[in-house]
Amino acid sequence: MNKEVVKYFGLSLIIIIVDQIIKILTHIYMMPGFNGEISLVGDLFKLHYTLNPGMAMGIEIGSAYGKTFLTIFRIFAMFVIGYYMFSLIKKQSPKGLILCISMILGGAVGNVIDSTFYGIWFGNSPIDAPSAWFNGQVIDMFYLDIWEGYLPSWIPIMGDKYYSLWPIFNFADASIFVSVIFLLIFQKKYFSENEAIITQNTKVDVENN
């Protein structure tokens, strides 16, 4: 088996394992909500056991089967990402690009496991869920309590309203977020190099034929 395939899929596997260990330990040893909160860096960074029934930022899809469809879509996306990464490895695409996709894959699978199985393993699916399968709630625990309060009334449109900036996320989310940031920063470099590699490989194939 190609060493690069093992390396990058192995990284995804490590992310999945670390993510699941953190979530399981959180579930076993922490009390949900503010009562079980643990301060790591003052009031800024804490551990806070909470359940996310939907997508990022707690956004939910309407209807009783919304979460089921979301989980099935996540499973489909997981295989698409895996195939895409495999194709990038075969094409010898830029290592930075493959690394980012590997981290996204690991994070995606980590959260898919929650959505698919946690309703059964931990019994955390919502009471009104049509089935415990595919309706598990994602466990989040890293809490950045950045700021909350009212914006001054003199600020156009957004002024004189209450806002809170306190993301709660897990290791899988962090892996995806960091990867997306790097892709946005280096996208021109990564994809231009990838295009050059594809062009070079095509030229070699034509010459060999």
Give structural notes.
- The chain has a four-stranded antiparallel beta sheet. A two-stranded antiparallel sheet has the order 4-5.
- The model has no long low-confidence stretch (mean pLDDT 87).
- A hairpin with a 3-residue loop joins strand 1 and strand 2 (45-52).
- It contains four helices and six strands; from the N terminus they run αββααββββα.
- The two termini are 26 Å apart.
- It has one domain.
- With 209 residues, it is an alpha+beta fold.
- Helix 2 (66-90) runs antiparallel to helix 3 and helix 3 (95-121) packs across helix 4.
- The radius of gyration is 21 Å and the shape is globular.
Helical segment tally?
Answer: 4
Q: How many strands in all?
A: 6
Helix content: 55-70%
- Helices and strands, in order, run as HEEHHEEEEH
Structural class: alpha+beta
Mean pLDDT: 87
**Can you tell me the residue ranges where pLDDT is under 50 for at least 5 consecutive residues?**
none
Count of discrete structural domains: 1
* Sheet of most strands: 4 strands, antiparallel
Oligomer: single chain
CA radius of gyration is 21 Å
What shape does the CA trace take?
A: globular
What is the terminal-to-terminal distance? 26 Å
Strand content: 5-15%
Strand arrangement, major sheet: 1-2-3-6
